[in-house]
Amino acid sequence: MSLKLVRGDESPEFPKASLFLRAGARLLDVAIAWLLYAGTGPAGIVMALLYILFADAMIQGQSLGKKAFGVKAIFLPTRGGVRHRDSVLRNAPFGLVIILFMMPDLGLKAFLGGIVVIGAIEAVRAIRDPQGRRLGDLWAQTQVIDGKVPAGQGELIARGAEEARATGRANKESPES
Fold first, then answer.
1. Who has greater pLDDT, 53 or 166?
2. pTM of the prediction?
3. Where are the domains of the chain?
4. Is the CB of residue 144 less than 8 Å from the CB of residue 72?
């Protein structure tokens, strides 16, 4: 598998995925995380956190919820499905909500407060953005698209691009080597 790079001036804008499909996918993923929490005993909270953080990288840019609702998270510079790093970055705000639940004495209150504040910020951002990108998407350079939209073909990345991608630096030169 080779990485592909889409230069900034050639990158198409993908249509905004349906917010109803995205919300349904998120609710299904939260239900799965809750089942992991309830069903794995003392390690449940950690299992739920890991699922929320890494879920989007499970099936080439799709969590189980995204797969069921037909949406996909893509890494914009390469137009490919998100990988583990991208999934953790884009889901970090929701991971923070789960970490708030772990607080002694304030766990449930902090969790509910986190859901309201972080959920509202992310929802407003997704609604107002032309491509439906929320803060997690901006941090990870990702976008949720309709799963039936082809990701497209980009140019091959020159040698050393994996290191550049891993550190978040994009190769700005033409890959003619």
1. 53
2. 0.71
3. 15-149
4. yes
